[in-house]
TrEMBL record:
The chain crosses the membrane at residues 36-58, 70-88, 146-168, 180-201, 228-248, 260-277, 283-299, 306-325, 398-417, 437-454. GO terms for molecular function: ligase activity. It comes from the Bacteria. Its main location: membrane. The keyword Hydrolase does not apply. This is O-antigen ligase family protein. It is found in: Membrane. Pfam families: Wzy_C. It comes from Candidatus Polarisedimenticola svalbardensis. One of its GO terms (cellular component) is membrane. Keywords: Ligase, Membrane, Transmembrane, Transmembrane helix. Residues 268-411 form the O-antigen ligase-related domain. InterPro entries: O-antigen_ligase-rel_domated, WaaL-like.
Length: 483
């Protein structure tokens, strides 16, 4: 990768500015979790897409080739919209019998409700209506989603993310413009890390020192939850350190005289420190594992890999003892010393088990995207008083909310994207020289995807938009000078 001095911002066109503005600004809007924030970002994405289409037709947002697999994310978004569509009771009963039963218990048949408004004895019909189970046609049309308003909101945001992926992929197909996208993304991540570290030394308990946080978790930078701040660092650290490694490997000691290598190294170390001091156990583990894989994939000989891994282990040991007394060390100690019955430490596992009956009750269609928090209260374990709005496992939550349909579509999408990314960036890397920057970008994407097994980074709009734009940029492999 080169910096903006070599890949000037003049390569950007009208459609690039609103897209980059949305990607950069949304994390600073407190992660983009509030409706005004992500709707504003979605508006900017639509504006960027409109400009691109008006200038170049549909070719302005669609990839030049290999388009067929893109039907998968489109179908996933359309499935969410379909969950909001009112269907006849027979269709709801066929596709989601448990939801149909809830609707029947919640409201009497239409003819019964009509007679309830008649005066006197007219309210009592002469012939009793058939049981509700046998007269589904007497009920109003309802949606498969038990919370259609939330499902509609979630689905439209997902489609906005898909549009951002298409647009970013098309715009970064040119090497010079791709360079600018990479620099802007990494600069924004580095600035987030800098602000997060500054807050460690002067924390007044507010988001960005200006806004009260209603949550008990310690805020860091613009994020209420340090795990979500750590998710950004997972994207940044392997990418930045991989790039600085490539610059030093290419130019040797002389690379230190150029601004790119030392700046990237400093930014990578800054993000590394910020990630560890976010006190997220998963962030610390994934960054460490990510750097190990970066070393394994980028070195050619067995001897160099063993030597590098030895250095990594030594540095990890030093960091472990050096972090003694920090909040991260305390959280690791609390987790490792917790008993098997300590719900406070294993509450995610307990909640995952509690969510499995939801999968059994709504196997095909799910409860509706965005409806988990509305429905899960009926499944919480006895004695659990915490309000669970997310399942802390994005993949299981997709299965709960979207059913088998969404689960299969997500698996197919992950396979389709992952196989193309592997062929584009990683195929044949073992045993030969490969730009570590490209490998680092992929490793960062994998780290954040693994984090989704125990958290909900992809439900934080700022992180989700950053993830899909990085994923789109990673689909292009330009010359080494812009890697």
């Amino acid at each position: 990768m080169t910096w903006l001095t070599e890949g000037p911002a003049s390569s950007l066109e009208a459609e690039d500015w609103p897209l980059l503005a949305a990607v950069c600004a949304l994390p600073w809007a407190f992660g983009g979790v509030e409706i005004w924030a992500y709707r504003s970002a979605a508006f900017l994405i639509v504006v960027a897409a409109f400009i691109a289409v008006s200038r170049s037709g549909w070719e302005g947002i669609l990839p030049a080739r290999d388009r067929r697999w893109l039907v998968l994310p489109l179908l996933l978004g359309l499935w969410g919209l379909f969950q909001c569509v009112p269907l006849p009771p027979v269709a709801v009963n066929l596709l989601s019998p448990h939801a149909a039963a809830i609707y029947r218990d919640a409201a009497p048949p239409l003819e019964d409700r009509a007679m309830a408004y008649l005066p006197g004895d007219a309210a009592m019909p002469q012939d009793s209506p058939a049981p509700a189970m046998e007269t589904p046609s007497g009920y109003p049309w309802r949606s498969l989603s038990l919370y259609p308003a939330g499902t509609l909101e979630r689905s439209l945001w997902f489609l906005a993310l898909f549009l951002a992926f298409l647009l970013a992929g098309r715009r970064s197909s040119k090497a010079e413009r791709c360079t600018v996208y990479k620099v802007v993304l990494l600069a924004n991540m580095t600035l987030l890390a800098l602000v997060g570290i500054m807050q460690l030394f002067h924390d007044n308990g507010k988001l960005l020192w200006i806004r009260e946080s209603a949550r008990e978790l310690r805020s860091i930078g613009p994020y209420v939850n340090p795990n979500h701040f750590g998710g950004v660092m997972e994207l940044a650290v392997p990418w930045l350190l991989g790039y600085s490694w490539w610059r030093f490997r290419k130019g040797g000691i002389q690379a230190i005289k150029e601004p790119q290598a030392p700046v990237a190294l400093g930014a990578g170390l800054l993000c590394l420190v910020a990630g560890f001091f976010s006190a997220s156990k998963m962030t610390a583990a994934l960054i460490a594992l990510g750097l190990v894989f970066l070393v394994l994939l980028c070195l050619r000989s067995l001897r160099s890999r063993v030597l590098a891994l030895t250095v990594v282990v030594v540095l990890a040991a030093v960091a472990f003892f050096g972090l003694g007394g920090t909040e991260l060390a305390q959280r690791v100690e609390d987790f490792s010393s917790a008993s098997a019955g300590d719900l406070a430490q294993y509450e995610r596992v307990v909640v995952w088990k509690a969510a499995l009956p939801m999968v059994a009750d709504y196997p095909l269609t799910g409860v509706g995207f965005g409806a988990f928090g509305q429905v899960f209260s009926a499944y919480v374990p006895p004695g659990e008083t915490r309000l669970w709005l997310q399942l802390h496992n994005d993949y299981l939550e997709v299965l709960v909310e979207g059913g088998l349909v969404a689960g299969l579509l997500l698996l197919a999408l992950m396979w389709a994207y992952g196989s193309r990314l592997f062929r584009m960036q990683l195929a044949g890397t073992l045993g030969r020289t490969v730009a570590p920057a490209r490998i680092g970008m992929v490793v960062g994407l994998v780290c954040l995807s693994l984090h989704a097994l125990v958290d909900f980074n992809h439900q934080i709009p700022g992180n989700a938009l950053m993830f899909v734009v990085v994923a789109a940029v990673a689909m292009h492999r330009h010359s080494e000078s812009v890697s």
